[in-house]
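Dear support,

We are seeing what looks like truncated structure output for some complexes. This example has two components. We would appreciate it if you could run it in full and send us the complete C-alpha cell output so we can diff it against ours.
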Amino acid sequence: MKVVAVREGEQTPTLMEKPRPEPAAGEALVRTLRVGVDGTDHEVLGGGHGGFPEGEDHLVLGHEAVGVVEDPNGTRFEAGDVVVPTVRRAPEGQEDNEFFARGEPDMAPSGQYQERGIVGAHGFMAEYFTSPGEYLVPLPPELTDIGFLVEPLSITEKALELSYASRSSFEWNPESAMVLGNGCLGLLTLGMFEHTEGIDRSYCLGRRDRPDPTVDIIEAIGATYVDSRETAVDELPDTVESMDLVYEATGYAPHAFQTIEALAPNGVGALLGIPGSWEFEIDGGALHEELVLHNKALIGSVNSHVRHFEGAIEDLQALPDWLIDDVITGVYGTDELDAAFDDSNTTIKTAVELSTR
Amino acid sequence: MKVVAVREGEQTPTLMEKPRPEPAAGEALVRTLRVGVDGTDHEVLGGGHGGFPEGEDHLVLGHEAVGVVEDPNGTRFEAGDVVVPTVRRAPEGQEDNEFFARGEPDMAPSGQYQERGIVGAHGFMAEYFTSPGEYLVPLPPELTDIGFLVEPLSITEKALELSYASRSSFEWNPESAMVLGNGCLGLLTLGMFEHTEGIDRSYCLGRRDRPDPTVDIIEAIGATYVDSRETAVDELPDTVESMDLVYEATGYAPHAFQTIEALAPNGVGALLGIPGSWEFEIDGGALHEELVLHNKALIGSVNSHVRHFEGAIEDLQALPDWLIDDVITGVYGTDELDAAFDDSNTTIKTAVELSTR
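Here is the complete output from our reference environment:
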C-alpha cells in the first residue's frame, strides 16, 4: 500500500510502498480516507519532535485521520463504519501503564506514550491502518469529508475542559475570550467561542496584513482581529479589554507570560504551544502578584482522548458550514504532496486523501 | 475602648482609645478575645498595603480575630456565641456588587472590596467590633483560644479548593507535596498535608540553620526540611523528587516560576505570595513547554470566604494539639505590643489578647 512518510535525514514527505498491516487481536483494520496536515507535522518533518519507531529508518506521517472500517476483526464496529482514531498508544511492554489503564493516555508523562505519526509509532497517512477498537471513535457518516478536523478540535475540547475545571469552584461566566494565533485550530476555536461556548466578545490575535483570508474569517465569525504588531498581549486590558479566557496557540513563549496581564480577574489562560528553550526577561514580581491578587490561572494542556473526540464531533456539528469550508483550503491526492504540505499564508488547512468512501 | 492601630506616617502599632462601635441593623456587636498577627500586618505597618479608611488618619489593625457575641442585635447568634469574622466587606455604595451578592467576596477584583485591618476598613484589634451576621462564622467553644488561626487556615482551604478544582477533570491523587516557606501558615499547611489531605510525602522549603524551631516542627510533622540555600526549587526533581502539589507562601517571585519545573506531570502550583514588581530572566520557552507537555497548572489564590472558614475549623480540629501549641509562640496583652509584633526567628505565631471569655 501507499504511505506518506519522512525518511531519516530528510525533511520532506515521501511516498513509499509498505505492506498492508494485519490487525492483531482486538484491533480493527481501517481503510484511510483523509488525513489532515498541521503544524505538528511540519515540526516532525523539521526534526523538532523526536522519534522514529524502534528499528525503523522512516516514520509514516499523519495523526488527524478519518477512515472506514474494512475489517472489524471482532471489535464493536461493523465494516463500513466511519471512524476517527485517537493518537496516543502505550509503548510496547507498558500496556498496563496506569494512564492507559484508566483511559487517560492524554495525561501520561513523557516516556509513557507513543504518538502515532509524531513520536515512536507510525501515523495514519497510509492506505490502511490498524488500531485497537477502544481508540477508534465512531463518526456520523455525514461528517466523513471533514472528519480529519475531529482530532484538532479535540485538542481544544481538552484545553477548555481543563480551563473550565480550574474555575469550577466559584461562579464563572466568561464573556470575553481571545485566541492567540490565527492558524486553523485558532480559527475553529474562535468559531467555538461564538457557536458552542456562549462567549459574548471574542478576539483573535495575528500578525497579518489585510487583505488576508484568516482576517476575513475572523471577522465573518463575528470576532475582532487584533494585530500583535500594533497591540502587545499584555497591553490588551488598556487598549482592547481584559480577557476572561485566553487560548494560546502561537507557541511564542512570551505570550504564555503576557497572558497573565491580559486576563481579567479570575480569568484563565489555556496554553498549548511547545516552544522549546528561550531565555528572556519578565517582570516576574508583577506577574506573580497579578496571578495571586486576582485569582488567575495558567493551565497547560496537551493531547486529548476519547471523550474530547466525542465533544469535538458535537462541535463540528455546531460550527457553520461556511467556516469549515473556508478553513479547508485544499484536499490533495498522494501525488500532490507539495501542495498538501504547503505552509504559505494562503494555506489554512489541508488534507491528504488516501481513498474515497 | 482600647484599639491597636497604625497612624498615618508611622510604622509601629499604637494603643489608642476609640468609642465602642454601635451595631447597625443586621450587625452583631462582638467582644474581641484574641487577634492573630501575621506577615500582612507587618506589610500594613510598613505601608506595603494601601489604604486607611476614608477620611481617617489611622487604621485599626487585625484581620485574624476570634470573639464572643455581646449583642446579637437580631442576627442569628445568641449572646455568648464564639465567632470568627471574615475579612472582606463591600465598599460603601457597592453593597450590591455581584461578588458580595453571590457570597464570593474573595473573588472580587481590586476596588470592589475593602479588607478589615488591611485596606479601607478598620480591623478587629479592638475591644469590640461590629459585623454583619453573615460575615461571622460560629466556632465550637473548645476552639476559642486558637480561633485566631481560622482565618489563616481558611486561606489554605481556598487555595487548595482552587488547586484541586483545576485537577478535577482527570484522576489525580497527589502523593508528594511541598510548602515553600516555613512561616506559621506554611507549617499549618504542612500539617494539613499530613493530617487532612492524605499526602504521602511532604516537604517544606526554608532558609534556616539548625537548630531552629520551625525545622523541628517540620520534622515532628513527619515532613522533610529542604534548605533553599542548598537546593533550588527548580532542582527539586533531580535532588529530592518532583512534586504533585506546590504551595508557595514565600512571596519570592522566582519561586512562582521555578515551581513549574518542580512540579510532577499533571501537578499544580498554588501561588499565594504578593511580591510586587521585580524583573528577572527566566527560560520562558522551557517553562511554557513544560506547562503544556505535562498538563501542569499555576493557580493564584487570594482571600477566602465563609465555606473556607468552615473548612478551616474542621482542619483545626484535625491538626494535632502539639502542632498548634508549638506554632503559637506567644499571646500578649495590649501592653506588650513589642512582643506581639516581634518578627524575629524565634517567633512563629503571636496573638494579641483583648479580653478573656
